[in-house]
């Protein structure tokens, strides 16, 4: 891990040159990366999580291209603006351009959303490749009923024009399934976006497991039950209430049993 140690040495002055508010967001975003690694939601050095930098500038934080998720820390995140200019690149590794295209689209259009998380998990991609998408067959999936957007696959996201279509497909939602590609959640905070991602990943895993029964018919709850759960889940989808904080605090306790380097 000498290369990671070297990268940390290069980045050790970051905290001194950013605001306390930005540092707090950096720590939370780095924790989200480490938690994704803990849950094995990673795709080597690919996929990306981002968070808006507090303040009037249109800046957001994203991972350096080449680091594994369990190597991300508060100080080695890259700061970039909406136009793709690297504002602060402590490691000199730059960023994944496809990540820039996807994340800049949402940060540029949806100022109500502070964090955007994107994964390429096996079960997430499997559901994204199914014509009917996420099915209302579990409590986890029904909680997302009526609030999942879908975006058709256009190839690796290297075309800036795709940003317009991605934002149009997202609409006023904060959860999206990228067809043949993966999952995306956004939130009013890193904590909120992560809670949504964890629920969505779980829903996809349950769906794939249920479908593994072959010819066994699936049970779909009645429409009135689905509607009731939609109403019950609104507090979670909004990011308001104590639930998001409690969920995040429990995640951090779990992470810090084995990993505290994310805060460096």
UniProtKB/TrEMBL annotation:
Which NCBIfam families does the record associate with it?
PRK07044.1 (NF005451)
Q: Where is the Class II aldolase/adducin N-terminal domain?
A: 27-208
Q: Which GO terms describe its molecular function?
A: actin filament binding
Query: What protein name does the entry list?
Result: Ribulose-5-phosphate 4-epimerase/Fuculose-1-phosphate aldolase
**Pfam families annotated for this entry?**
Aldolase_II
Stored Gene3D superfamilies: Class II aldolase/adducin N-terminal domain
GO-annotated biological processes? monosaccharide metabolic process
Family statement: Belongs to the aldolase class II family.
Q: Which domain of life is it from?
A: Bacteria
- What is the species listed in this Swiss-Prot or TrEMBL entry? Pseudomonas orientalis
User: For this UniProt entry, what's an example GO CC term?
Assistant: cytoskeleton
């Amino acid at each position: 891990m000498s290369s990671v140690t070297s990268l940390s040495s290069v980045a050790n002055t970051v905290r001194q040159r950013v605001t306390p508010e930005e540092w707090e967001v950096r720590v939370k975003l780095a924790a989200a990366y480490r938690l994704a690694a803990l849950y094995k939601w990673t795709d080597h050095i690919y996929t990306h999580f981002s968070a808006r930098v507090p303040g009037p500038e249109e800046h957001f934080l994203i991972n350096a291209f080449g680091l594994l998720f369990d190597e991300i820390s508060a100080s080695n995140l890259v700061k970039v603006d909406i136009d793709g200019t690297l504002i602060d690149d402590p490691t000199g590794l730059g960023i994944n351009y496809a990540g820039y295209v996807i994340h800049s689209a949402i940060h540029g259009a949806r100022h109500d959303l502070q964090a955007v998380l994107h994964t390429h998990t096996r079960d997430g991609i499997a559901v994204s490749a199914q014509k009917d998408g996420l099915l209302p067959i579990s409590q986890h999936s029904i909680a997302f009923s009526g609030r999942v957007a879908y975006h058709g696959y256009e190839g690796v996201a290297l075309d800036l024009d795709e940003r317009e279509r991605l934002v149009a497909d997202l609409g006023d939602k904060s959860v999206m399934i990228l067809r043949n590609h993966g999952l995306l959640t956004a939130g009013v905070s890193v904590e909120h976006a992560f809670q949504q991602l964890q629920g969505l990943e779980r829903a996809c895993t349950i769906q794939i497991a249920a479908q593994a029964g072959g010819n066994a018919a699936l049970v779909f709850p009645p429409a009135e039950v689905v509607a009731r759960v939609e109403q019950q889940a609104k507090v979670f989808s909004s990011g308001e209430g104590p639930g998001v904080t409690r969920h995040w605090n429990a995640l951090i306790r779990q992470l810090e049993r084995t990993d505290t380097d994310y805060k460096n």
